[in-house]
Every structure is written in C-alpha cells, then in structure tokens.
Amino acid sequence: MSENYEPMWKELGLDLEAHNALLNVLGQGYTDIYLAQENRPEGMAYFDFVMSEVHGLRIKELMEEKKQGRKIIGSYCVFVPEEIALAANATLVGLCSGADFAVEEVEKHLPRNTCALIKSALGFKLGRVCPYLESADMVVGENTCDGKKKAYETMGGMMDNLYVMDLPQMKSGLGRQLLRAEYDRFKQAVEELTGVQITVESLKAAIATVNAKRSALHRLYRLRKADPAPISGLDALLANQVSFYDNPARFTESVNKICDELEERIQESRGVAKPAAPRILVSGCPMAVPNWKLPWIVETAGAVIVGEESCVGERGTRNLTDDSGDTVDALMDAVTDRYFKVDCAIFTPNTDRLDHIVEMAEAYGADGVIHYGLQFCQPYLMESIPVEKALEEKGMPCLRIDTDYGMEDAGQLKTRVQAFIEQISD
Ligand code: SF4
Ligand code: SF4
Predict the structure, then answer these.
(1) Which of 135, 303, 306, 381 lies 20 to 30 angstroms, CA to CA, from 277?
(2) How far is it, in rounded angstroms, from Cα 195 to Cα 164?
(3) Per-residue exposure over 305-322, b if at least 16 CB sit within 10 Å of its own CB, e if not
(4) Nearest CA to ligand 2 atom 6
C-alpha cells in the first residue's frame, strides 16, 4: 500500500490486529492466485493496483467524498439500484463477503448450516475488519433468500444504519408493483439521507453513468467469446468484482482500455490459455472478493473460464436501464423494469435463468458448464438440478459443485474438476 492508513482505519473503528491479519491473507492469496498467472493483459495492472489499495486509497477517496458532504451507501445485493444512490449524490459500494472471518463468533448468532456468504457478511461486522462497512452511512440489506432475511434481523441489532428492502419472489404483475414500491421507498430514504431531491436530470445522468459501466463490461464479455480466449476467467472475474468498489467513471475507462488491448490480442489470435484449452462457463452463486477458489482450480487444471452466469458477472450486469423517460416517475419505472429482469434463484418459477445459461453456453462456445453452489444455499443448490437437466437436453456437460470458502475440500474439488475437464476434452 502506498501510505500508512492505520490512523484512518483506527478512526473508522477497525480492529487493527484482525484487519492486518485479513490483509495478509488477502495479499498472499492475491500473489499466489493472480500474480502467478502467465500472459496477463497489461491493462490488468490497473486492477492489481485497485486490489492492492482496496482498503487504502479507495477508502481514503470515500472519506474525502464524505468530508465534502457525500454519503456512502453499502449494499449486499445487485438488487440495490446504483442509479438511485448516484442520482441523490451518494456513492454505492458493494460489501464483500467472500472470506470466512470470526467464524466462532458468527456461529454464536447464526446456525452452522448457514451459507458462507451470509456468515462472512456477519463475520466482517463482528470482527470489525471491513472499512467499507464501517464507512457506510447507510447499509442496505434485502429480503432475498430466507437466510439473508433472518440474518438482517440479527445484523440490525449490531448497526444503527441498516435499511432493509423487501423483494418479490415471483415475476408477476404484483411482484413488479412490490419492487417499484420498494424502490420508491428506497429513493425517499436515500433523499432523506443525503438531503438531495432526485430530479429528471440527476436520474438520467446516473442512469448514463451506470449504463456506461455495464456497457464496458458487455464489451469485455463479447471479447471473451473469441477463440482462443484473450483473458483468463480469473482476471475477468476480478474486473467484475472491482466494479462493486471503484469509482464508476474511472472503472468504465479502465475496462474499455483493457478491451482495446484484448481486441489486438484477438486479431493476433493470442490466447491466454494453452491452445485448445477447454472452455468453461461458470454459473451459480455470486463470487465476492476474495472468493477465487473455484476459478483458480479450474484454470490451473488447464481450462479457461469464458463467462460467469452470476451476480458478480452477467446476471448482475446484462441489462441496461432505458433512459428515454422524461419524468422521474417514468425513469423509476425504467429502473424497476431493468432490475426486475435479474434472474436470482430466489424467484419462482425461474425459467429465464435456465434459458440464459443455455444461451450463454452456446454464445461463448463453452465445452461444459460448472454450476457453483455454496453449501446450505437452498435457492441455487435446488436450482442446480433443473439447470443440469436443461443443459443435458442440449448435450452440454455440467458439473455441479457444492462448496464453501474454506480450502479443506480443494484437493477433492481439483480431482472432480480435472475429471470433468478430461471428459469434455475428448
Ligand atoms: S444471488 Fe440473489 S441475493 Fe445474491 S446478490 Fe445475487 S440477486 Fe442478490
Ligand atoms: S441466495 Fe444462497 S448464496 Fe445467496 S445469501 Fe442466500 S443462501 Fe447465501
């Protein structure tokens, strides 16, 4: 890190010793997994820098924004519209939950058989190790799966700024009405927080900013369709992960820059993996920083990940918001329509997701799909069975993985992934 941030972390109330331990683990994991890759695009240097400063410079920037009167909103889910936060002069950041922390403490509050993502979110709060969480003026939770819903009741008692958003479970007319009403309520809460009234102009500008960020990611996704793949799945996942923290305009610029480089690589047929490396689509639960275990296993086994059907990936970014409305009401409708298309496994029925996975597998020229489910995550684990069936009908091999954030099963996963790669290489 470029300077000593300890005074800032102290001011935020972090547990410095625990935080240092977390940073060490993060740094080591990053070196072993990311920096050990060969043949990376030069543009990844930007993302390496962001990751090296993820608890440093970026937090300093947020603290400066706060000094200038801007509010920071932390969010646990892709259903929280960044457009609304930006339009009211707030910054939205994702609250990562990709590593086990303070597990013993967490298990005093939540059952052991809770998914790793929820446990991690609570562990970061209990352990006081997340500067994003501690600098947020408002933390937004959402009633998606039952685990999250109940965990927010527990978390609500640990912070005084938790705002809970309700979400529909069915893509019906009533479901859409609920989402719209909840976004109106959120808009009001954000306006009260910031003291800024959202206008047509500010909402249009916010939509443009977020659309530009998503369009840059779409460009990156399109380039990954090339054979040989010009970028590793690990690096593309990192870009997706960084999109939750970075300043949106700067992020857009950096992704477009790396896309320019990838276009050159494609022209020269320069791939990132060995020629004829099997192409894998990963589908399932979101992978927050620093949850890199599965992509690392897949890519060190000789395959290349070409797409992610995930909230940290295409599920979270694929749709843009229509900005043609000329009233706040019309634009809020457009925001609702955009997010209502997110096909999280909490929805029932959820055939759109099955169609999307099949469509992605074909579009990206995948040789196989790995469905990634976190242990105890009922929505995704249950849905992995119909996903496998839908893929089987198309003759697309699918491997269902059920894991957590620990490394205990790494050897066993490696064996299963290697066998799958051999099977699809024939
Ligand atoms: S999987 Fe569902 S609950 Fe989790 S971030 Fe995505 S949309 Fe939100
Ligand atoms: S949807 Fe699954 S992975 Fe996401 S929070 Fe709920 S149980 Fe965990």
Answers:
(1) 381
(2) 20
(3) bbbbbbbbbbbbbbbebe
(4) 145
Kindly state if the Cβ of 117 falls inside 6 Å of ligand 2.
yes
Quickly count: other Cβ atoms within 10 Å of residue 303's Cβ: 26
The whole-angstrom separation of Cα 270 and Cα 249 is 29
Q: Which ligand 2 atom minimizes the distance to the CA of 346?
A: 1
What string of H, E and C letters represents the secondary structure of 316-339?
HHCCCCCCCCCCHHHHHHHHHHHH
Closest atom of ligand 1 to CA, residue 144: 3
Radius of gyration over every alpha carbon of the chain, rounded to an integer in angstroms: 21
The rounded Å distance from CA 311 to ligand 1 centre is: 6
Read off the pTM: 0.97
Q: Taking residues 162-176, what's their average pLDDT?
A: 98
* Neighbouring C-beta atoms of residue 53, cutoff 10 Å: 17
Task: Quote the distance between the C-alpha of residue 5 and its chain's center.
Answer: 26
Angle between helices 173-194 and 328-340 (to 10 degrees): 120
Task: Output the pLDDT for position 1.
Answer: 73
Atom of ligand 1 nearest to the CA of 145: 3
Ligand nearest to the CA of 94: 1
